[in-house]
């Protein structure tokens, strides 16, 4: 599926209900996805932006990992979470600067299947340049998940698949880095026949602050006006 077709056909937009939550929500489906050891799955995330708002300072990220029991217990696995800048060349979406924002060698045990919420906790110093060319009024970025450890490829663990977000926007498709050892970032992949006919988004909530913030934009306008007056 081409990026342009995916963007045109499957971009879902919702109104933010919490100023700090820039992307999230979406009803869980009965499916999960694990691309295998060494691969990173990336969910595209978009939020509404105003004039001059071209960066996102991340406050926290959480992802939902579906974990099933095998032989009466959860299959333990490690996880890494990434935030990456999104690129767009007019046709294809790509991955720019990539930041590891969370890592755990173990999600722990248990005796019942669960959708486990993994939260990065408070983040600082992670500011992403937003992709603002592909969809007017929206800024985009990627959130990635990698399974690690001896059970990384065990499909008893997978990133939970959800329907369209209730806050923010997304294309009903995803990217993968190093699928089957390719060493490359590829987008878009989607589920269903034809691709994209099935839910192809992942469970993720992103809290952040747009830069510059609306108040800063207003102050910049006042400063510009004052400067203009002084020059008269």
Q: What characterizes the major β-sheet?
A: 8 strands, antiparallel
CA gyration radius, whole angstroms: 19 Å
Head-to-tail CA distance between termini: 56 Å
Helical amount among residues, as a percent range?
Answer: 10-25%
* Quaternary form: single chain
Which segments are poorly predicted (pLDDT under 50) over 5 or more consecutive residues?
Answer: 1-10, 15-19, 215-232
Overall shape: globular
Structural class: mainly beta
User: What is the number of independent domains?
Assistant: 1
List SSEs in N-to-C order.
Answer: HEEEEEEEEEEEEEEEEEEH
* Share of residues in strands: over 45%
Number of helices: 2
- Structure summary, number of beta strands: 18
Mean pLDDT equals 88
Question: Explain this structure to me?
Answer:
With 232 residues, this protein is mostly beta strands. It has one domain. The chain has two helices and 18 strands. β8 (78-88) and β9 form a beta hairpin. The chain starts with a helix and ends with a helix. The model is unreliable at 1-10, 15-19 and 215-232 (pLDDT under 50).
């Amino acid at each position: 599926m081409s990026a342009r077709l995916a963007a045109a056909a499957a971009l879902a937009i919702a109104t933010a209900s919490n100023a700090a939550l820039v992307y999230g929500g979406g009803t869980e489906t009965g499916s999960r996805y694990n691309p295998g050891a060494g691969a990173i799955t990336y969910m595209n995330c978009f939020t509404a932006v105003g004039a001059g708002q071209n960066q996102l300072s991340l406050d926290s990220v959480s992802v939902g990992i579906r974990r099933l029991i095998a032989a009466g217990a959860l299959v333990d696995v490690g996880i890494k979470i990434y935030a990456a800048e999104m690129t767009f060349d007019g046709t294809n979406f790509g991955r720019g600067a990539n930041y590891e924002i969370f890592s755990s060698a173990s999600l722990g045990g248990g005796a019942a299947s669960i959708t486990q919420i993994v939260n990065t906790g408070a983040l600082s110093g992670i500011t992403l340049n937003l992709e603002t060319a592909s969809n007017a009024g929206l800024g985009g970025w990627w959130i990635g998940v990698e399974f690690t450890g001896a059970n990384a490829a065990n499909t008893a663990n997978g990133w939970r698949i959800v329907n369209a977000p209730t806050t923010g926007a997304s294309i009903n498709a995803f990217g993968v880095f190093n699928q089957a050892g390719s060493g490359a970032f590829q987008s878009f992949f989607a589920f269903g026949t034809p691709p994209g006919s099935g839910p192809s988004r992942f469970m993720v909530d992103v809290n952040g602050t747009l830069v510059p913030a609306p108040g800063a934009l207003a102050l910049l306008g006042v400063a510009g006006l004052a400067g203009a007056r002084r020059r008269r």
